[in-house]
Specification:
By secondary structure, the chain is mainly beta. The protein is 3% helix and 48% strand. The strands form two sheets. Strands 2, 4, 5, 6, 9, 10 and 11 form a seven-stranded mixed β-sheet that branches. Strands 1-3-8-7 form a four-stranded antiparallel β-sheet, with no helix packed on it. The longest helix is centred in the C-terminal third of the chain and has 4 residues. The protein is globular. The relative contact order is 0.31.
């Protein structure tokens, strides 16, 4: 019954900001580990960030560290990805995904560990 819906993508000039949202049904009692991934055409899917919503532990890929920030609003069953100082290389389809894991495992989990996925939201950054 877990369902995820991403929103907030769009087109932005380099240096601009976007905030992505991921609404998770059954939150917070169905799944406690939420990840953000991205994939550009012709490239491998890469992990962007992860959050364990119960303890609010977070992890970021080196390519986005210092520019992207995770947050959550439990009342809205929503995880946010604030993206600042956007670069053309950030252009990709962004997906949120969820699973159930303890904090340590959550912050090391990759694609194969996430059972539930959203449909994706496109982010395009132009120079």
């Amino acid at each position: 019954e877990v369902h995820l819906v991403e929103s907030g993508g769009g087109s932005m000039q380099a240096g601009g900001s976007l905030r992505l949202s991921c609404v998770v049904s059954g939150y917070p009692y169905n799944r406690n580990c939420v990840g953000w991934f991205r994939q550009a055409p012709g490239k491998w899917r890469e992990r962007v960030a992860r959050i364990h919503v119960d303890v609010e532990d977070t992890d970021y890929a080196n390519s986005v560290k210092g520019r992207f920030t995770l947050s959550q609003d439990n009342a809205k069953n929503t995880v946010y990805l604030q993206m600042n100082s956007l670069k053309p290389e950030d252009t990709a389809m962004y997906y949120c995904a969820a699973t159930s894991l303890p904090p340590y495992a959550c912050l090391q989990a990759d694609t194969d560990k996430f059972t539930y996925w959203g449909q994706g939201t496109q982010v395009t950054v132009s120079s």
